[in-house]
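INTERNAL AUDIT FORM
Audit reference: QA-55
Scope: verify that the stored structure record matches its stored sequence.
Auditor: D.O.
Record contents follow.
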Amino acid sequence: MLGCGQKQRHHFEGNQYVVTWALGHLVTLAEPEDYDNKYKSWTLEDLPLLPPKMNLKVMKETSQQFRGVAQLCKRQDIKELIIATDAGREGELVARWIMELVHWKKPFKRLWISSQTDKAIKEGFRALKPGRDYDNLYASAVCRAEADWLIGLNMTRALTVKYNAQLAAGRVQTPTLSLLMKREQEIDSFQPQPYWTVSGDLGTFQGSYRQQEGHDGRLWDKANAEAIANRLNAKSARVEKLKTTGKSEPQPLAYDLTELQRDASKRLGFSAKQTSNVLQRLYEQHKLVTYPRTDSRYLTSDMAPTLKGRLESVAVGPYAALARKALRHPLNITRRIVDDSKVTDHHAIIPTEQYVQLGALSNEERKLYDLIVKRFIALFYPVYRYDETSVVLRAGEDALYARGRVQTDLGWKEVYGSDTMSDDEDEEGETKQAEPQQLLPALRMGQKLPIKSAKAKELRTQPPPKYTESALLSIMEKHSLGTPATRADIIEKLLNTDTIERVRGRMVPTGKGKQLIELVVDELRSPELTAEWERELERIARGKGDRGRFMKGIREQAAKWVGEVKVETKEYKPHNLTHSRCPECSKPLMEVKSKRGKTLVCSDRECGYRRAAEPALSNKRCPQCRKKMEIHNGKAGKYAQCRPCNFVEKLDGERSGGGGRKNRQQQERMVQQYSDNVSLGSSLGDALKAALEQKDNK
């Protein structure tokens, strides 16, 4: 496409362009020890760390690629640079930091595109922007990075040293944890109250008692509810009000990242991070969708001519008939689809014009692509229409209410078929209380209907639910915590630091998280403060904010909060202590979760002792019982052992098993070789125990 056919180690080269890359980011902010070696040791006396100028450094993991890029920048024949990183705040930061460290002084331009197709890239190169147009975006990105460093590093070090525990705090993650804790407190303080509802069986449908229109039907007195049921029983009710209204439900808006993460969580069970990763592959590798990290659910007017071509491109496989039906008529492109005023840097996530090979997608990619394509096709279908009939039936002094609907035009719901899923959660994670749908018979004013039976039913008020990941994303968006690009990483960071956990699909603070939120300073818990910072970062990106004033405020906050931690008198008690003791310092061991399973870690952070809580299972099968064997480390190296039958095998192939004098001799040798391991069971375990005692006596 750009004619760069000569592949080199760190770049591709052609007659007109040289293309290189910054995978792994290449440059980051310097660590404290890069300023002074003494900061390798964490002490309260050294805090707060507030370097007068924030330095950059090359990342060790990608240093070779950085050196390759730096060499290219020194070439005399390269006169201009084109930034082609992700078209967003963080993409700008990646490129500009590299430019800063290589001391780029020559002209530069910006490629700003929303999809990775050949067509989009070619069009983007024909309309390159002046690089300086994005200086404010870069300033905002630097402020974000430096603020996270100053707040996160200082507070994490202060809390960790003060309480001798690994306690992480941050500009966004701590307020997010605070929201979860607030919900936990609401649940813990909730006192369920009994209430009653009364319903009447009218033969072909049910009527619900209401004191008046707008009443929710809940009665707080049992005797009153039973009295109403008794009055209604075996009576007849007369149709007092009857109203049929034509209603419609518009097509759902196209996806932004947060809405897609919410939908993928509810429909597919994907975590927010999983959705981001899969979406990035669809964008970057397969080139099938537009820019992922967007906060807009609308398209721009210049895209309108491309929408027909995009529909034609997705008209394959299960989408062929649906897309072709939409293409039979001119597309109805309304402001619900295209609205320039509601698009900032990037438009909504929609399919590209790239030809689709569904068979080339993984199962995860296929499922997520399905959500995006169906949402896109549904934009061009009619609204969903139905007739809603409401009826009020009078029985003496009491009234029964009923509601039913009849579908008149399936509209956009045809795209989803039986897969149509209602949004049964509001943005707070509460389950929406919807009246049950029922078919009403043909009714007329004044008509009398017998009430076959009436019953009072006892129910209890329910506490607010724990947040699902979908609801947590919504509440983070509501409070302006993070950006669409960062919210998934914030949730993962909270999970990885053991401050929250997933319990049956809900996000719940751990014992560590509950204590941490009590130990951090009040202001850092506040979502309002973080939202204020995020708004100021956005102002800086638009050239309306004051970068110097913002960073001055961040530094003052960091210094103030560290001071508050230093004088705090609260205590931290690890929630996950075990009865096991550290073999090096005799302090209790804590059980922590990791990607490799549970790990036992010394409760004294300075000790650093850790070991696996449980032996790792290998794919190696025991030749006797065919069960998976455990992996152990002994004096002579690693070995596999089957716990049920005591079969032992060195990983280099030497085996020991039950039966026969030779095998018993091999077992004895294995006991001697691996005498620093714990009991393996039965006679071999006893022998090991004796060997361990003998070793300790020495």
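Auditor finding: record pair retrieved intact. The first strand starts at residue 6 and ends at 7.
Action required: none
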